[in-house]
Write a structure and sequence with these properties.
The structure holds two protein chains of two kinds. By secondary structure, chain A is α+β, with helices and mostly antiparallel strands. Chain A is about 45% helix and about 25% strand. A five-stranded antiparallel beta sheet of chain A has the order 2-1-5-4-3, with helices on both faces. In chain A, strand 1 and strand 2 form a beta hairpin. Chain B is built from three helices and five strands; from the N terminus they run H-E-E-H-E-E-E-H. By secondary structure, chain B is an alpha+beta fold. The two termini of chain B are about 15 Å apart. In chain B, strands 2-1-5-4-3 form a five-stranded antiparallel beta sheet, sandwiched between helices. Chain B has one domain: Dynein light chain 2a, cytoplasmic (Beta-Lactamase, 2-Layer Sandwich), CATH 3.30.450.30. The relative contact order of chain B is 0.19. The longest helix of chain B has 21 residues. The chains are: A alpha+beta, B alpha+beta. At the A-B interface, helix 2, strand 1 and strand 2 of A face helix 3 of B.
Chain lengths: ~130, ~130
């Protein structure tokens, strides 16, 4: 299985466990640690500039180097709101991923429960390949 | 069976311990409606009397500001300072949870944890 896909699935599983957990504290800690581990692992891949995790537009974790992580997380909230609205209008189902490609950089966003994970890279990088193994 | 005061205190200490384990969080305290600190966990010396009074004043001001703009109950107060953050969240029965974080604290992580922790503390204080 594609490495990033497997990590995202694992995080979804932990997020669902957190939502159902009787002992929220342990589930929350496990979820948070897993998210931090994934961010650290993603940024070690060739071609990935930065990885961040945010909630409601505020940073939970950062890895790598970005000019402005706070701007990234704030804009992520904008994109998430717009994306969710569009997905609702078009009956796409719950938003799971978004990719914004600029002339110089691209940003891939993954929705995991209440959190969003963002991966920043130069536009030329094929993230699917960089994060496959 | 009703919780004893010792059980309640132990549970609160455990919750505050979880909060202060977050990166950058240097203190967490519970302040009652009279501005007295009932529970505190900290990494540095802190004047708890001053903290308690300041928290209730700050929170009271925030609540009045919200009333003035008709925005309903205050759920959280965030103070972002040169060297860190202070976050306040109301609990039941007039208690307030106060957190102090240094510049390494991740605002989103702290806020996320506080949002999850408030219901837990309200259950303890119920």
């Amino acid at each position: 299985m594609h490495w990033l896909e497997s990590q995202v699935e694992r995080l979804h599983g932990l997020s669902e466990t957190l939502a159902r957990a009787a002992d929220c504290k342990q589930a929350r800690q496990s979820f948070r640690e897993a998210v931090e581990d994934v961010a650290a692992a993603v940024v070690r891949r060739d071609g990935v500039t930065a990885c961040f995790v945010c909630h409601d537009g505020l940073l939970i974790e950062t890895a790598g180097r970005a000019p402005d992580f706070e701007a990234l997380s704030a804009m992520t909230q904008h994109w998430m709101v717009a994306g969710k609205e569009a997905a609702l209008t078009l009956s796409l189902g719950k938003v799971r991923q978004m990719v914004i490609v600029g002339h110089e950089h691209k940003l891939a966003l993954f929705v995991i429960g209440q959190l969003a994970v963002g991966i920043l890279s130069p536009s030329a990088v094929v993230l699917g390949r960089a994060l496959a193994h | 069976m009703a919780m004893t005061a010792i059980d309640r205190s132990h549970k609160v200490d455990k919750v505050l311990g979880t909060i202060t384990a977050l990166r950058g969080v240097t203190a967490a305290a519970i302040i009652d409606s009279d501005g007295l600190v009932t529970h505190v966990r900290r990494d540095f010396e802190i004047n708890t009397d001053a903290l308690g009074a300041a928290v209730q004043i700050a929170f009271g001001s925030a609540r009045r500001a919200s009333d003035h703009v008709a925005q309903g109950a205050t759920h959280m107060v965030l103070v972002e300072n040169k060297d860190g953050i202070v976050m306040l969240a109301p609990l039941s029965r007039g208690f307030v949870l106060a957190l102090v974080g240094d510049s390494s604290a991740m605002l989103g992580a702290v806020r996320f944890e506080v949002k999850q922790t408030v219901p837990e503390l309200n259950t303890i204080f119920a």
